[in-house]
Amino acid sequence: MGDQTHGQLDQWEEGYMTPTPTQRILVVDDDASIRRTLSILLRKAGYEVTQASDGSEAVRLWRERGGDLVITDLHMPEKDGIETIIELLSHTPGMRIIAMSGGGQTKRLDLLGNVALLGSVLTIEKPFTLAEMMAMVGRALKPVH
Predict the structure, then answer these.
(1) Rounded to 5 degrees, what angle do the CA atoms 143, 83, 111 make?
(2) Quick check: 100 and 140 in contact, CB under 8 A?
(3) Could you give the count of Cα atoms lying within 13 Å of 137 in the half-sphere of its Cβ?
(4) What's the pTM?
(5) Answer CATH for 22-141 from 3.40.50.10740, 3.30.300.350, 3.40.50.2300, 3.90.1150.10
(6) Closest of 139, 128, 141 to residue 34, by C-alpha
(7) 3-class SS letters over 69-131
(8) Is the dihedral of CA 8, 138, 84, 121 positive or negative?
(9) Helices 81-91 and 55-65: crossing angle, nearest 10°?
(10) How far, CA to CA in Å, does 46 sit from each of 55, 68, 106, 113, 124?
(11) Could you report how far apart the first and last alpha carbons of the chain are, in Å?
């Protein structure tokens, strides 16, 4: 997500999905620009969005408010994304989560591959396009029959 992000937001066209008014998403990342960009994108698509800057805050907010989806980075201070995911799943088994991370240590350790083994967790690698993220959100929130 680079400088073209704002251009992508301006060019955003609805049609990826039609969220219900009650769908709530928690965005967790220690990078404020990523939180802000994803929040703007998701709000434009009709979701209610809450932000957390680390895993501890995310778990607290989830316990207070709940929601329909968590989008979390894996590399964060305090409580990393894997610890956060495990704690969230222990609180709400089967909840929907998108884990995001990129390059460096993540690639060497295959953290995205490992976190997918936790079950209801989808993964996306940074950098991603806004369209890729919205497609992933649509997949994550797809009703289970």
Answers:
(1) 80
(2) no
(3) 31
(4) 0.80
(5) 3.40.50.2300
(6) 128
(7) EEEEECCCCCCCHHHHHHHHHHHCCCCCEEEEEECHHHHHHCHHHHHHCCCCEEEEEECCCHH
(8) negative
(9) 20
(10) 25, 13, 31, 30, 21
(11) 33
**Tens-place pLDDT, residues 84-132:** 998 998 889 889 999 998 755 444 445 655 665 566 678 888 889 999 9
Model confidence over 9-37: pLDDT tens digits? 444 444 455 555 579 999 999 999 999 99
**Residue entry with tokens 């073209």:** 4
